[in-house]
Amino acid sequence: MPNIEASKKDLEKLIGKKLDIKQLEDAVEYAKGEIELVEGDRIVIDEKDTNRPDLLSAEGIAREIRGRLTRERGIPKYKVRKSSASVIVDKSVSKIRPCIAAAVVKKVKINENVLVQLINSQEKVCGTFGRKRKEAAIGIYDWSKLKQPMHYKAYKPRGKKFIPLEYKVEMNLEEILLEHPKGKEYKHLLEGFSKFPIFEDNKGVVASMPPIINSDLTGKVSPSTKEVLVEVTGYNQETVNIALNVMVSALAERGFEIYSVKIKYPNKTIVTPNFTPGKITVKIDEIKRISGLALNTKQIVELLRQARYDVKVKGKKLLCEYPAYRPDILHPVDVVEDAIISYGFNKIEPKPIKISTKGSELKAKKFKKAFENVCVGLGLQGVLTFTMTSKAKQTEMIGFDPEKEQLIEIENPVSEKYTVFRKKLYPELLEFLGKNKHASFPQKIFEIGKSLELDPKAETGVIEKNKLCIVFSGKRAEFTVAKGVLDAIADSLGLKYALKENKSPKAFEGGKSADVLIAGKKGFLGELSKETMQNFGLEQKTAVLEIEI
Amino acid sequence: MDLKQKVESLSEIEATALKALDQEKFAKFEEISEKSGLPIDSVRRAIAWLAEKELAKISEEREEVILLSAIGKSSLRKALPERLFVEAVQNLGGKGSLDEVYKKSQLNRPEFNVAMGLAKRNAWISIVPGKETMIELTGLEKEFLEGKYPLEIALKKIRDKEKVEGEEGLAKALKRGLAEKETVVEKKARLSETGKLAIEMLGNVKKRAYNIQGAVPKIFIGKKHAYVQFLDHARAKLLEQGFKEMESPLITQEFYNFDALFQPQGHPARQWTDTYQLKQPKTGRLPDKKIVERVKAAHETGWTTGSKGWGYKWKEEIARKVMPTAHGTAHSARQLAKGIESPGKYFSIARCYRPDVVDSSHLIEFNQMEGIIIGKDFSFRHLLGMLKDFATEFGQTKEVKFLPDYYPFTEPSVQLSVKHPKLGWIELGGAGIFRPELTEPLGVKEPVLAWGIGIDRLAMCALNIKDIRQLFSTDLAWLRKTKQVIWNA
Q1: Is residue A370 domain-shared with residue A507, that is, in the same domain?
Q2: pLDDT beyond 90 at B213
Q3: pLDDT: which is higher, B156 or B448
Q4: Fewer Cβ atoms within 10 A, N terminus or C terminus of chain A?
Q5: Which of A334, A353, A464 sits opposite B249 (nearest CB)?
């Protein structure tokens, strides 16, 4: 979950109230935040709601808190001043990355706090709400360095050159995608296109190559910047509008002035930013029913206004309007939660659940318990291994051909140790023993767990079998020990079994292994071959029993 | 017991071992075995007894050694995947298509992908896109092929038990699981001061017939794994409270893991960095067509739930993909789709998977305890009542705090913090009321309270361990020492 860096003083200034750490801790809960770290003036807030881009900055968190701790209520009003600025959208981007929104912010005073919030929230909004820049990529520019109108247009891979951010040399678009770290990271977003989007000014000075990188010349803000241009590109006008609103309203929270920009598409013109509130109707009864709280209409309206809604009562319904920086309100339940948060979770008296139901466990668990009891009675130590493992362990180390053996394979393994799901348990137990050569012998271990096999007929294409595996290691851990254990288990559980000679011993010593059929389920047992022992670094004789239960 | 009694009580084996001990120098058990002619196991036992009688002193030296893992051994025998990969390109004349290289290398797919990534990162190859992706050697591979590859150098040194600390390739070898750190305990023993006196007395003392105080051989009893014991207790608690256990397959359709839970298909949580995906098999079957159609509608337009929906084109082929289960909530979705009784309580203690780097607080395979309670008139207040119950049973406390939280599939959502008697304030679990966009398409009209408890953390407390990896400990001596787990003890 995103971590928000903030200065305590700055946060207090934005909230408009001095708070000690305990009070601040309680206050950020209104914004689904938790204080992770306090270090002098520096605090780090863990923001849990990944669906609220507006809470990814100190300004946004403060705005949410103000509704609860100060007299401020309802939707925050931001004045948008008209300007002549415009972006001309060329039809060449319509198939590549069609949507754009922009705003100019003037009278900005960029101190360190502003800069930290601006840069961090830009990155986090793109990362979460913007789906790693796919749905929304944000650019911030020094407006004084650009000559309007701006143009949003696609160029051929070598059709444009500029110096990317924090670089010294000019690169063409192809070079940026292949060589620049950001190019490599995000080039998949432009895959399959023969032209790439460029955001440039009227003189052809490049501002950025969305959604990859800004230009070093114009795409940088510093304490001397007085006017900034904020631009968002993506595939959906509503999404880019919300991202723009989030960024621009945070700046307006500091008293900076917002100016509109005309977006001239080939077939229509729109004006951004657009702060028209979202609308949703909620039944008063629904709020009472879901929250379980006995509230009157006036109280509910007050709770919602604290959560920054504007509310009109219409009979048994509430006509709610919510700020244009919130993308998360899909259903009346989302509004209900905001009311309960305003009320305070810890002021609510919990109500006990009084239903009478009968507990039951899965049949497989009942079998597992019976087998477990027998194993404990046999003096075996239970072990627990992972179901993910390496292909080598499940194939060549036990004499199977890795090319022929069909296993459930992971597409995106993190480590070579875990690339497949186990089909057999015993290689995992042998590895366990290999790590315990210094513990006293004999070593007698068991595990009951799942093993996976491909099965096209199964619902998931995988059949999951519950298996028992027992491994003995020591001077007398021979075939007869494994068979003796099988015999004892079968006897104790009243099951019949049969052994069949194993013609292809693989991991086992020739002639000293067998296929098992026990109560209709399959298995095998045997004494390990020298080679298998060597593969797992075992020095003492080892006998194995593995059966499906 | 005075010294005379002690000497009288010595068994034949103890006396032999005692005589073989050095007065000054600590000796390894193997050395003592050789000197005394006793088998090593007898030496081990005898010395433990002698130490208990204060006749011998034992020193334990813990040494961290680095050893090749099973995969490390086999890859060193066969050559590393990246070597097979680069050699394959070389054998193709320094250039070849992706397919050619794959065939030539004889690697399996995951190995091949890992090897190609490494070769690219090390700039041994360049990948030339085009109709057919080509792989070309860059010339930088020469040093590598000549054996100047830090990883291989480190692995060989580990194999030959040479000093490997400070080797450039060591960290890589550990990270890739080719080598592992293991703590080896080397026990040594020597005579104690009383032991010296005892030896002098040995000849003059008459043997006593029987000593009831004498040490006995250690018996290792059979037992369930301590963590399994803990989980079984937790399961028993839930059964007591009237919960029914749900099926919890390790492999699930994305439909249950995400779509039925109203997680949009483009969501970052569904990307390969956040969840495991399977190479084989690829897809499974979806439930009843009616349910699938309604889930699709809920995503696209909100269906009849009163929601706006996510506003995108939902694709059935994505929902059909199968994956290792990423969270226990997938099983609740499966249960809801299958049909449930109302009022009803359901739970699962499920193995879940997440691609992560394994460390003292992260596993890629872990257990989640989750469940649902369904009933006609349940409200947020009931949700809190349920959590209070859990706090008493699982957190051993009545001191609770509820915090606003976010889960993609519940609204409202709440985090349960409790003041645990041993751990202090901890996040015990999370809960919420399932969104209508989730329940209604699955045919459920009544409110469903969903909850999850951080069971691994509680298990670590009960087992008194700090490192989560120890839940899957491979240390037999430690497992043998673990006590029977008693609930809320």
Answers
A1: yes
A2: no
A3: B448
A4: N
A5: A464
Other CB atoms within a 10 A radius of the CB of residue B214 amount to: 14
Final residue before a domain boundary, out of A69, A88, A122:
A69
Is residue B171 less than 8 Å (CB to CB) from chain A?
Answer: no
Q: What residues of chain A lie within 8 A of the CB of B313, using their CB?
A: none
Same structural domain, A213 and A94: yes
Read off the pLDDT of each residue in B11-37 and give the average, rounded to a whole number: 86
Domain presence at residue A278: no
- One-letter amino acid at B9 equals S
Question: What is the structure's pLDDT at B268?
Answer: 77
Nearest CA in chain A to B262: A330
Whether residue B400 contacts residue B387, with contact meaning beta carbons closer than 8 Å, is answered with: yes
Query: What CATH code is carried by the domain that includes residue A398?
Result: 3.30.930.10
Query: Nearest C-alpha of chain B: how many angstroms from A168?
Result: 23
Write the pLDDT tens digit of every residue in A4-22: 999 999 999 999 999 999 9
User: Structure pTM?
Assistant: 0.81
Three-point CA angle B202, B204, B209, nearest 5°: 75
pLDDT exceeds cutoff 80 at B180: yes
Given CB atoms, is A194 within the 8 Å cutoff of chain B?
no
Residue A384 lies in a domain: yes
DSSP string for A225-257: ---EEEEEEES-HHHHHHHHHHHHHHHHTTTPE
Verify that A319 and A464 share a domain, yes or no. Answer: no
Q: Tens of pLDDT along A473-532?
A: 998 899 999 999 999 999 999 999 999 998 888 999 988 999 999 999 999 999 999 999
Task: Decide which of A36, A69, A102 is a domain's last residue.
Answer: A69
Total domains in chain A come to: 4
Asked whether residue A410 falls in the same domain as residue A502, the answer is yes
What pLDDT shows up at residue B208? 60
- Claim to verify: residue A416 and residue A438 sit in the same structural domain: yes
Q: A517 - beta bridge partners? A: A498, A522
Residues in chain A, total: 549
| Separation of alpha carbons B21 and B35, rounded Å | 9
End-to-end CA, chain B: 36
R_g of chain A computed on alpha carbons: 33
* Residues of chain B neighbouring A383 (CB-CB closer than 8 A): 225, 474, 476, 479
Residue A279 covered by a domain:
no
Show the domains of chain B with their CATH numbers. Answer: 3-66+182-202 (1.10.10.10), 70-146 (1.10.10.10), 227-481 (3.30.930.10)
Residue B122 has pLDDT above 90, yes or no: no
> Do A393 and A465 have their domain in common?
yes
- Say yes or no: A181 contacts chain B, CB-CB below 8 A: no
ipTM above 0.85, yes or no: yes
Query: Is A373 in the same domain as A431?
Result: yes
What's the CATH number where A317 sits?
3.30.56.10
* Residues spanned by the domain of A21: 3-69
Residue pair B133/B98 in contact by the 8 Å Cβ criterion: yes
Rounded CA separation A92/A155 (Å): 8
Task: Quick: pLDDT tens for B25-56.
Answer: 888 888 888 888 888 888 888 888 888 888 89
Q: Are A174 and A262 members of one domain?
A: yes
Residues 356 to 375 of A: which have CB under 8 A from any B CB? 356-362, 365, 372, 375
Of B114, B284, B345, the CB nearest to A460: B284
What DSSP assignment string belongs to B243-310? PEEPP--SEEEHHHHTGGGT--TT-GGGSTTTS--EEES-B---S-HHHHHHHHHHHHT-TTTT----
Say if residue B489's pLDDT is above 80.
no
Please tell me which residue of chain A has the smallest CA distance to B446: A290
pLDDT tens-digit readout, B426-480 = 999 999 999 999 999 999 999 999 999 989 988 998 999 999 999 999 999 999 9
CA pair distance A273, A245, nearest whole angstrom: 6
Please check whether residue A262 lies inside any domain of the structure.
yes
